[in-house]
């Protein structure tokens, strides 16, 4: 009657794939524990949240996990009550898919507990509603990889069409989380609503190149494709020392460097664990030099 589910951090956008590409990491992640109370009342309650510094709402309708559990019960017609406890293991507003991880862990825990046989795509739609609560839009590029694992493409939002992509075996990610906060909602508001045809051509070329590289495990093509002419030039101004960090990672052998989701976290993709570990020290030095504290995670893309 009790279950604990882990859902991982995710990197959304992956440079050229704004709102459509994302991948999951092996760590860190959030844990959601659900307790089933078979009282026929259908109440949902959040009994505890740890690791959020007291900042996340405990009201069910305001909390990503709460929203997801409530919707799961509604859509399946289950009348048991559920007690939720959430253990956050990554910072909020970090661009590491924190809200998505909680929403996905919640819906996956519901499915494990009640075994309603809900298809993954329907679980995804529920988790997206949790995401909508957290950031104002129901984008799926964090929730999809958190739920499915690996690399995912949102081919279309209406109707929702998710494509799972292969992950090259030696693909590692260095995730840098500087101690700065950027709210997804604000990071979306500053974007231009129109793009030029020329930029659209560059961006689609890179998306196609990146996807092709995942299939062929062509790390050089992957590296050439990790570019973003639409979003990075605007959003990078929200992140201190972004250009210097990027330059340092690339100089030290990273395949590519970009903003993780809406930032302020940044990611570098590398070929092999050794190559990933090699860039940690120089990146830490750049942060130290400007007096910004932060955390750097090395993790396999999976
Ligand atoms: N695609 C979303 C954005 C991800 O960039 O706004 C948010 O984490």
Summarize the structure in words.
- The chain has 302 residues and is of the alpha+beta class.
- The protein is built from 11 helices and 10 strands.
- The strands form 2 sheets. Strands 1, 2, 3, 4, 5 and 6 form a 6-stranded mixed sheet that branches.
- β3, α1 and β4 form a beta-alpha-beta unit.
- α9 (242-251) runs antiparallel to α11 (280-289).
- The mean pLDDT is 95.
- Residues 12-13, 18-19, 95, 139, 141-142, 184, 187-188, 261-262 line the site of L-homoserine.
Question: How would you summarize this macromolecular structure in one to three sentences?
Answer:
By secondary structure, the protein is an alpha+beta fold. It is built from 11 helices and 10 strands. Helix 1 runs parallel beside helix 2 (98-114).
List the helices and strands and how they pair.
Elements: E1 2-12, E2 21-37, E3 44-50, H1 64-76, E4 81-87, H2 98-114, H3 120-135, H4 143-148, E5 151-156, E6 161-165, E7 171-178, H5 184-189, H6 197-216, H7 219-225, H8 232-235, H9 242-251, E8 256-259, E9 266-271, H10 273-278, H11 280-289, E10 294-300
Helix pairs in contact: 1-2, 1-3, 2-3, 6-7, 9-11
This protein binds L-homoserine.
